[in-house]
Amino acid sequence: xxxxxxxxxxxxxxxxxxxxxxxxxxxxxxxxxxxxxxxxxxxxxxxxxxxxxxxxxxxxxxxxxxxxxxxxxxxxxxxxxxxxxxxxxxxxxxxxxxxxxxxxxxxxxxxxxxxxxxxxxxxxxxxxxxxxxxxxxxxxxxxxxxxxxxxxxxxxxxxxxxxxxxxxxxxxxxxxxxxxxxxxxxxxxxxxxxxxxxxxxxxxxxxxxxxxxxxxxxxxxxxxxxxxxxxxxxxxxxxxxxxxxxxxxxxxxxxxxxxxxxxx
Length: 264
Known about the structure:
Strand content: 5-15%
Strand order of the largest sheet: 2-3-4-1-5
Order of helices and strands: HHHHHEHEHHEHEHEH
Number of strands: 5
Shape: elongated
């Protein structure tokens, strides 16, 4: 299909032509915004080149936004968590400057690991999801998964002769976020399968984990001491370890709110 080219189009005809061209070229943002941008261009006496630049930049910005939204959705985060909403004052154990440095994603570019260690309610999962979201917005492929869900998926894949494909799929993403590592004891088979995923990613793509157990307590999860040591080594070598502490600020916030309600 070709569009007729005519000089001296009426405003209505020109609008229709632009609309049709945008549909053909798949430029939905220009199609929706060009009337407003055209009015702005006339009001501010933009040059033709300036008006064209505004149209193209609007399309590029919107495409970048949509790509970020698709990457965030593909990551599979269970809820929306951002660094902007994290209360650093409520947990002085966490260095805000370090977290914002991590948000620049240089560690992901280098394929380094990240460990968030601390008790429940200290912000581990919030930071894990928020940093994963920052990575997705920066253009990295991210996948979030609970440790038990990952192990169960690997066991099922092994039973169905799909293990190689499953490990490769988890190996391809730029950042693998594993939450709640250490909450449950893993049998030797499950631990070995998880180890294969970590080995697939070693020094190539980043792994970020959140755990309520210090490394010394990981023998409860990985009951084979040698395997436990190897997993700890892969999750810590060259990376960052952030200890979020033992005091639940979530519980403290709940208590403070209850006390305020009691006083009022």
